[in-house]
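#struct-help
A.M.: can someone run this one for me? Single chain, 497 residues.
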Amino acid sequence: MDQLNQLLVQRRKKADELAELNVDLYANDFKPTHHISEVLSSVSANEVAADIEDGQNIRASFKVAGRILAMRKFGKASFLHIQDDSGRMQIYVKKDAVGEEFYAQFKKWDIGDIVGFKGKLFKTQTGELTLQADTIKLITKSLRPLPEKFHGLTDVEMRYRQRYVDLIVNPEVRDTFRKRIEIIRLLREFLSNRGFLEVETPMMQAVPGGATAKPFKTHHKALDMDLYLRIAPELYLKRLLVGGFEKVFEINRNFRNEGLSTRHNPEFTMLEFYQAYATYSDLMDLTEEMLSWLTEEVNGSMKVTYQGQVVDLAPPWKRYTIDEALIEVGGIDPTILDDPEAVLKMAKDKGIKLEPQAGPGKAKTELFELLIEERLINPTFVTAYPTEVSPLARRNELNPQVTDRFELFITGREIANAFSELNDPVDQKKRFEKQIAERGDDEEIHPVLDEDYIRALEYGLPAAAGEGIGIDRLVMLLTDSPSIRDVIIFPHLKAEK
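D.P.: on it. Structure tokens below:
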């Protein structure tokens, strides 16, 4: 029998022995009065005497509950550390204080058990604030041991697969997800304070749209129709602009049937917002203001360190057209960019595989991704994306070959995508039809045109701009996390063998 199975047997034996003593292994009648952090910061905590036996100086009584993380058991007294969602503290359990019967039960407790204590505070001779228990309570018996050296695990997937254990033993992981929650709260606050309304749109859609991605497919039995998990909420949010809501946003879950990587998870979180009577230039200003403010609120500075690189989010941010980036950052001869055949040849010479119908706009975009993207460390807006790769964006009035669109890059990663919205239903329908006609075997382009969206545009979509920001990648940046799996609390993984 291996060590783990031996420990499981030992724990089950202790649980059975406690049950024979009529101890409720899963009690629901202990109500803590304080979180640990409240106890440690209380007035009483700051006034207690540093004498373990000096009952005259022990102050107010507290009730706390948490999980046992460490134990030092002695004959008639023991020390242990417990943890709740606010912090950790030391508990002192003395046989004379809790009684012989309860102390005998206590000696069958294990690391990992969830327990409760009532008692008063004192400081040990080393100055550690400690609760001396006069009442003890087993709340939940843990039948499986916690890993002793979780940080030393070589199989990092175990941390992602058993996130509940990761959260128990690694406080920095809990801090990451607390920061994620705070980031989302602050984004809501920022947009709500500027008059944006938070809305909800369908997660199951008859026609997946708003992005180029392979969707997940399901079937609705009662309606007898196929539905798709949304790849983006965009087309529904713009329907709301048609309906008269002028500023809307949604913090949404999207689903794309694509591979897994340090940057991609098939289920991910996006912030999308749309504003009537605004342009992509307005949203650049708004994004710069929002994310620099957010960074300072979360980290206390507009400078962050990401994987050893210092990133400065203080405005103003660098702005390039895609051609300017290829020339200034990539060193490409501008005469090549002006020659469609030369651009296509360069892309092929660089090993980029293009579909037969791909034009120079697609080639430029692929060259940018290959040569430029990873070099944009500080926040950089890249604008004037080719119309060929921007089917939902408004054409630029001076140059219809490009659109009024930007992407934001930080640490070499796309963080946001935005554009002035195409609101011409005739142009939009033609672009959809062209995209479908040229899709070939590309499963990322849906073969059915969204006729209802065209109908909505025919009622009139006001001039508007919209943007999507990847929440997961933003959290990666602000928590210095190398993988998207570090910031998604339950990431997708292959099935266990």
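A.M.: thanks! Confidence is low (pLDDT under 50) at residues 150-154.
D.P.: also worth noting: The chain has two domains: 3-146, 168-330+372-486.
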